């Protein structure tokens, strides 16, 4: 491809290729502990975690959230899943000429409310305006900073009771044979909510986005201990997350289809539209890899939270194969390939 297409921003293999071929090739090579080329959720320098996110969601307001809530929660979550404590955010807004100030204020108020939930503040930023017709309404970038805490150290100490573990952070490359895979709740909610609202589809029940900051839940789980990796499965969904883990950790992953929590309405919508719910982005769920000895404890703690009441252990890492294999409800096995991109565009 000689020009950028929508697929280049959809979170799958096409976007991955663009990032590696253009961005990493030219900007990689830093001495950061977790550098750009690691392609993890955030970067790390001297126990400080850095993250930057740009958001182009369409529409700006939708059931369960808006671009402001999405921007704050997404950045907070990407810092927290590394094992760090989010401290503060920046906000850069690019606004189209003619955009209603009342809508701008709604977005900013939503950002403030989500910051209060997460226990962080937006402490600096920037605002630009572009001529009418040169931008579609509103784009926002949120960057964030976090730091290492004793919670992460205690969590890693628990991991080391059961197996060798050299990593200082919760990285995509940390999985080993036997590690259990947990999802914190129903998948596909965010992408299907955006699609149904944007296109006017009626699937028989209202589906709302799952956007929420998860740093407080993550702190609770780190206190239990035994976690080797966490990730919020956004663009490309659970399928993309699991394939990244498998590739970077050099292990296979087996998933049990009957264990994957999916809402009835989401499943019906995906069947009607011919899309895979495992490839659809989420904004309020965590995929968690944990040593097998602590999996039940982590699941029990997760189920006691509002955000994790539908959590399930859905699979495990294995050395018997490579890539991701799904054991289906009827007893078959199929490969869960890395998606080319999220089937629902402009969801974050």
Span between N and C termini? 24 Å
How large is the count of helical segments? 9
Total domain count: 2
Order of helices and strands: HEEEEHEHEEHEHHEHEHEHEEE
Largest sheet: number of strands, sense, barrel closure: 7 strands, mixed
CATH architecture of the largest domain: Alpha-Beta Complex
Number of DSSP strand runs = 14
Structural class: alpha+beta
Report the β-strand fraction as a percent range: 15-25%
CATH-defined topology of the largest domain? Phosphoribosyl-aminoimidazole Synthetase, Chain A, domain 2
The CATH first-level class of the largest domain comes to Alpha Beta
How large is the radius of gyration?
A: 19 Å
Shape: globular
**Mean pLDDT score:** 92
As residue ranges, the low-confidence spans are: none
Helix content: 25-40%
Question: What would CATH call the homologous superfamily of the largest domain?
Answer: PurM-like C-terminal domain
Strand arrangement in the largest pleated sheet: 9-11-8-12-10-13-14
Describe the overall structure.
The protein is 32% helix and 23% strand. It folds into two domains: 6-147, PurM-like, N-terminal domain (60s Ribosomal Protein L30, Chain: A), CATH 3.30.1330.10; 150-335, Alpha-Beta Complex (Phosphoribosyl-aminoimidazole Synthetase, Chain A, domain 2). The strands form three sheets. The chain has a seven-stranded mixed beta sheet. Strands 1-2-7-5-6 form a five-stranded mixed beta sheet, covered by helices on one side. Helix 2 runs parallel beside helix 3, helix 4 packs across helix 6 and helix 6 (215-224) packs antiparallel against helix 9 (295-303). It is globular. With 348 residues, it is of the alpha+beta class.
